[in-house]
Design a protein that fits this description.
- Chain B: Keywords: Amino-acid transport, ATP-binding, Cell membrane, Membrane, Nucleotide-binding, Transport.
- Chain B: Its main location: membrane.
- Chain B: It is found in: Cell membrane.
- The complex is a heterodimer of chains A (about 220) and B (about 240).
- Chain A has helices at about 10-45, 50-65, 65-80, 85-115, 115-125, 130-160, 170-180, 185-215.
- Chain A is mainly alpha-helical and about 220 residues long.
- In chain A, α1 packs antiparallel against α2 (about 50-65) and α6 runs antiparallel to α8.
- Chain B is built from nine helices and ten strands.
- In chain B, about 45% of the residues are buried.
- The chains are: A mainly alpha (about 220), B alpha/beta (about 240).
- The interface between A and B is medium-sized, with 21 and 26 residues.
- The complex binds adenosine-5'-triphosphate (ATP) and magnesium ion.
- Magnesium ion binds near residues 40 and 161 of chain B.
Chain lengths: ~220, ~240
């Protein structure tokens, strides 16, 4: 027995396993969100309006409806239409698409910030559109929007707390369970907060490190 | 040989090139002069297919640039172009800037590409700056890097679009020296420039652009000493 009367190591371990779930959902959602975001962002930045606008319009819907509503609706569709998708998949897809909606605008703003003349210079050397995007536009855009992207990733991590509403036991839910058992809400929530901080801190540090390295260039 | 035949180019409703015809032979240095907005830059962009045309034709060594079947990425290997803005790739070192296209486009190995880049950068006097990032270079150095980057593809033709216009006056000389060197080596070049003395010195022929047409074409002596058209004379008076 440590900390107060009844909080045990097992409770802490239980919360840590919730934290692992939080990390897993965060990684999957950020990966989905970033891949889709890069695709849609490039399309938004470089396509005629009849491609760009519909993409923007649909993503606006995902950006403006609260994530909780999307999660609950998506989860209900899942059972209504008997898709039998695992709840984790529903959570990752929902968060992933939500992240993609924000990431698309981040990528679009980064891509449009790369000077057209620089892109033309690359094409004039004989690079194909794809080679140019991979070697010039995306690296340049990444350096421009990286702080926003770090912000998005940290935001997604905190938003994972909402998936407890569809029955997933992540860090916040595991803390609630522990709280109802040991009746020490302040202590347990402080520990949960600390774990969230310890998970975010490396991401923020990594971001700062990369930014510093890029500034030298 | 670059053969430009009756080329018309529109940007929307703006008629920018109105029937330009011109041949540039192997080994020739042709300067394009003319007022702002007369279509010189647009002409260069059309030659390597960065801009499309609406009428006429442009062919490079017999290949029709604007034909549907033409592989532009392949054609562009043979036509280097350097712009007024230096267009360095800021996230790559000087060496990597020059190595990029030989590696990606020509499929050279890292060693081969590096050897080419080192040689070309030495050629333009940047042998000491290989590992620097472009942001650490002066404008003149960045512009010479852009020239080396184009030369690394061993192009048959080089197009220069006002490559000294964005430079501080004291840096213009070093870039013009690089162009002089290329012309002495027999490179076929089209040089859009506002540096009239330079145009006179290096060019075999000078084309005067006015309102989307070549108004007058001739040797530097003809154009600068005895222009036949009043517009040419007016333009020269305004810039000299
Ligand atoms: N991408 C574009 N879209 C629309 N109009 C354009 C575009 N590029 C050039 N123009 C217009 O075409 C005309 C010719 O431009 P161009 O840049 O070829 O002139 P220029 O002779 O190079 O002039 P300068 O000496 O100022 O560089 C100008 O009126 C310009 O505004
Ligand atoms: Mg111009």
């Amino acid at each position: 027995m440590f900390f107060g009367a009844s909080l045990s190591w097992n409770d802490i371990l239980f919360m840590l396993s919730g934290a692992v779930t939080t990390i897993a959902i965060t990684l999957a959602s950020v990966a989905i969100g970033t891949s889709l975001g890069v695709l849609f962002g490039l399309a938004r930045a470089g396509s005629p309006w009849w491609i760009s606008w519909p993409i923007g319009g649909i993503l606006d819907i995902f950006r403006s409806i609260p994530l909780l509503i999307q999660l609950v609706l998506f989860n209900s569709f899942n059972s209504m239409f008997r898709l039998h998708w695992p709840t984790y998949l529903v959570a990752c897809l929902c968060l992933g698409i939500y992240a993609a909606a924000f990431c698309t605008e981040i990528v679009r703003s980064g891509v449009t910030a790369v000077p057209t003349t620089t892109r033309r210079a690359a094409r004039s050397l004989g690079l194909t559109w794809f080679q140019e995007v991979v070697s010039i536009t995306l690296p340049m855009a990444t350096r421009i929007v990286f702080p926003s992207w770090i912000g998005l990733a940290l935001g997604v991590m905190k938003d994972t707390a909402l998936v407890l509403w569809i029955g997933i036991v992540e860090l916040l839910r595991s803390s609630q369970i522990v709280t109802t058992r040991v009746q020490e809400p302040l202590l347990v929530l402080s520990i949960a907060g600390l774990i969230y901080f310890l998970m975010s801190f490396p991401i923020a540090r990594l971001g700062a490190q990369l930014e510093k390295r890029w500034r030298i260039q | 040989m670059i053969e430009i035949d009756n080329v018309h180019k529109h940007f929307g409703t703006l008629h920018v090139l109105k029937g330009v015809s011109l041949n540039v032979k192997k080994g020739e240095v042709l300067s394009m002069i003319g007022g702002s907005g007369s279509g010189k830059s647009t002409m260069l962009m059309c030659i390597n297919g960065l801009e499309g045309i609406q009428k006429g034709s442009i062919s490079v060594d017999g290949i029709d640039v604007h034909a549907k079947a033409t592989d532009l990425n392949k054609l562009r290997r043979r036509i280097g172009i350097v712009f007024q803005q230096w267009n360095a790739f800021p996230h790559l070192t000087v060496l990597e800037n020059v190595m990029l296209a030989p590696r990606k486009v020509l499929g050279k190995s890292k060693q081969e590409a590096e050897a080419i880049a080192v040689q070309q950068l030495g050629h333009v006097g940047l042998g000491e700056k290989l590992r620097a990032f472009p942001s650490r270079l002066s404008g003149g150095q960045q512009q010479r890097m852009a020239i080396a980057r184009a030369l690394a593809m061993s192009p048959d033709y080089m197009l220069f679009d006002e490559v000294t216009s964005a430079l501080d006056p004291q840096l213009v000389g070093e870039v013009l020296d690089t162009l002089r060197m290329l012309s002495k080596e027999g490179m076929t070049m089209i040089v859009v420039t506002h540096e009239m003395r330079f145009a006179r010195e290096v060019s075999d022929r000078v084309a005067f652009f006015c309102q989307g047409q070549i108004h007058e074409l001739g040797t530097p002596e003809q154009i600068f000493d005895s222009p036949q058209k009043p517009e040419t004379a007016d333009f020269l008076r305004s810039v000299l």
